[in-house]
Amino acid sequence: MTDSINVDPAELEKFSNLAHHWWDMDSEFKPLHMINPLRLGWIDEHVGIEGKTVLDVGCGGGILADAMARKGATVMGIDLATKSLRVAQLHALEAGTPNIQYREVPVEVLAAERPASFDVVTCMEMLEHVPDPASIVRACGELVKPGGWVFFSTINRNIKAYGLAIVAAEYVLNMLPKGTHEFEKFLKPSEIALFCRQAGLAVTDAKGLQHNPLTGRYWLNEDCSVNYMLAAKRPL
């Protein structure tokens, strides 16, 4: 199945090999756990997530999906890394997370099955790992209801981002495994904004995610030069 869909087999293998670490707060996924409250809060500020139907595209081990379900949303998480999904399912079972389900299905296939089905679609830290990010954005636009919201997060493509997200994070500070990111796959906000317009989505907000490696603190501000999030809305 993975030979003909929008996925890089090497990326799937990379995250599958790390699957057992998803819920280890001291593992390679510690940064995701640290930024999760910031991401969740920013999404919730825009949409008031309680009571909403949410799709988390590229959900991995379910860190964000689980948090959104605990916030009161009805959540579906999708991914193509089988081992990661099994970890997500097991965690939801063990934690007793309500109103959450996981499926191993390409987002483009789900868009054909269930167009305009979700109040909110999130796609975080995924676009920089796929061969055709525009196709992912387009499918997200098809899956969200008119008037609904789509949220993306990724890494900007510039020298500063290369230095911080790859050299510092992977080779100096060892925050992430070496080879986690490829600079050529990073995406400028203008590129995602173009993909959104082509998908019938209007970008309404952007936020940068900052990190102080000395204190371990993460925070949001207006600087989108490295890690950033975009909020987009499908018109009524």
Total helical elements = 8
* Multimeric organization: single chain
Topology pattern, helix = H, strand = E: HHEHEHEHEHEHHEEE
Separation of the first and last Cα atoms: 35 Å
Which residues form runs of ≥5 with pLDDT under 50? none
Tell me the Rg in angstroms. Answer: 16 Å
The residue-averaged pLDDT reads 92
Strand order of the largest sheet: 3-2-1-4-5-8-6-7
**Helix percent band:** 25-40%
Percent range for β-strand residues: 15-25%
How many strands appear in the DSSP assignment? 8
Function: O-methyltransferase that catalyzes the 2 O-methylation steps in the ubiquinone biosynthetic pathway.
Protein name: Ubiquinone biosynthesis O-methyltransferase
Catalytic activity: a 3-(all-trans-polyprenyl)benzene-1,2-diol + S-adenosyl-L-methionine = a 2-methoxy-6-(all-trans-polyprenyl)phenol + S-adenosyl-L-homocysteine + H(+); a 3-demethylubiquinol + S-adenosyl-L-methionine = a ubiquinol + S-adenosyl-L-homocysteine + H(+)
Keywords: Methyltransferase, S-adenosyl-L-methionine, Transferase, Ubiquinone biosynthesis
Question: What can you tell me about this protein's structure?
Answer:
By secondary structure, the chain is of the alpha/beta class. It contains eight helices and eight strands. It has helices at 9-17, 30-47, 63-70, 82-95, 107-113, 133-143, 159-172, 189-198; strands spanning 53-57, 74-78, 100-103, 118-124, 144-155, 202-212, 217-221, 227-233. Helix 2 (30-47) crosses helix 3 (63-70) and helix 5 (107-113) packs parallel to helix 6 (133-143). The relative contact order is 0.14. The mean pLDDT is 92. S-adenosyl-L-methionine binds at residues 39, 58, 79, 124.
